[in-house]
Design brief:
alpha/beta, elongated
Length: 380
């Protein structure tokens, strides 16, 4: 009967493997660049380059017949911070610009505007938008409708008539993100994309490189076991990922002004579990592919793109078809993005964070079980 190895020997072997992997990470410039520079680049991209906030819209105003009413409406339109306005007497002056996408909309005040402005049937205002961009089309038509209602009420009061009092008074209250800033929503979610890239892509590339160079075969020829191999590979990149997470959080709070209302302990816990998911996925990819090019392509297809599309980061999952909504439950970034946005904007809401952590934990166990089963501990 074979004697079991002393625990001290196993611990010494594991420590040596971790030190060896850590030195390899520090000597690899690509690892430092991906972990240090990429988080900042992605944060700047999503913090400054991507926004869902209303922007200034370029519109043209056609006034077929000048009057005091058209001048007042034109002044109201030009004083709005939502529109950059060009004016002219004929719509044909602007049709080409609208076709080329140089204008977001065309507003036409017809010749009988002054005559019908305050009649029951309303004034003939025509709004022409390009349906090729439905979001912008809805924004232009909605803003013009709102501006028209405000202008009509002000003109009604200025003519000495009592203001129209609606039967229902709306008092909007915005929770968690009072500024209604898309940056507060996007920047926390981008941290999940960053950790996915560092965990899955970086680990898959580095380990696949070892397979190509033959160093992995040399390692497997030693008495190192599966558990020791996985831990030795994971620890350096796990610490690297947590360092990138800390850098991203500090940048989000100090540079972009995103509020953080949760606790650091919960943030570190959720980030740690998610890093285990990403690292395990990267190890599994490298074990199955053993080629850097294939590993990179597989990581993008199975880790980065699903995290981007199915995490509720940019694209709303509830608006997707049922089949895609079901697929999203198999994407760990879905749970981590939910936790991040809750931690930053609402705080420690355990009714949200608890199920997310359970989902991440289950995924981590499954991915590590698959990695352990597919990792070969002997040369064939």
């Amino acid at each position: 009967m074979k004697d079991r190895e002393p625990l001290a020997l196993r611990w010494r072997r594991l420590t040596g493997l971790i030190v060896k992997e850590s030195r390899q990470v520090l000597r690899d410039p690509s690892s430092v660049l991906i972990a240090g520079v990429m988080p900042l680049l992605l944060l700047f991209l999503f913090g400054y380059g991507v926004t869902f906030d209303p922007r200034q819209l370029d519109v043209a105003l056609v006034v077929e017949q000048q009057s005091s009413e058209t001048a007042s409406f034109q002044a109201s339109l030009e004083n709005s911070t939502l529109f950059e306005v060009e004016t002219g007497p004929d719509r044909r002056l602007f049709e080409r610009a609208l076709t080329l996408g140089e204008l977001d909309g065309l507003i036409v005040l017809q010749a009988d505007f002054a005559e019908k402005a305050f009649r029951a049937e309303g004034a003939p205002i025509q709004v022409i938008v390009d349906g090729g961009d439905p979001n912008t089309a809805y924004l232009v038509s909605g803003y013009v409708e709102l501006l028209w209602a405000n202008w009509l009420e002000q003109e009604w009061i200025s003519r000495g008539r009592p203001a129209l009092v609606p039967s229902v008074q709306l008092e909007p209250q915005v929770w968690f993100n009072p500024e209604i800033s898309s940056r507060n929503y996007l920047v926390p979610g981008s941290i999940a994309i960053i950790l996915t890239t560092i965990g899955a892509l970086l680990t898959a590339l580095v380990v696949a490189r070892e397979w190509e160079r033959g160093t992995m075969e040399a390692l497997l020829a030693t008495p190192v076991g599966i558990l020791e191999l996985l831990i030795g590979k994971l620890v350096p990149y796990f610490l690297l990922g947590l360092g990138s997470m800390a850098l991203a959080v500090i940048t989000a709070v100090l540079l972009f002004g995103v509020p953080f209302r949760g606790s650091l302990a919960v943030l570190i816990l959720s980030s740690s579990v998610f890093m285990l998911c990403s690292l395990g996925q990267g190890l599994l990819i490298s074990t199955l592919t053993r080629n850097q090019l294939v590993a990179a392509q597989t990581s993008v297809l199975t880790a980065f793109l699903p995290a981007f599309y199915f995490s509720n980061f940019v694209f709303e999952i509830d608006s997707m078809p049922l089949a895609l909504r079901l697929i999203s439950y198999g994407v760990p970034a879905r749970y981590y993005v939910s936790t991040l946005q809750t931690e930053f904007l609402a705080g420690d809401v355990w009714s949200v964070i608890g199920p997310d952590l359970i989902g991440l934990g289950v995924f981590a166990l499954i991915i590590f079980a698959l990695t352990a089963l597919t990792t070969r501990t002997r040369l064939e």
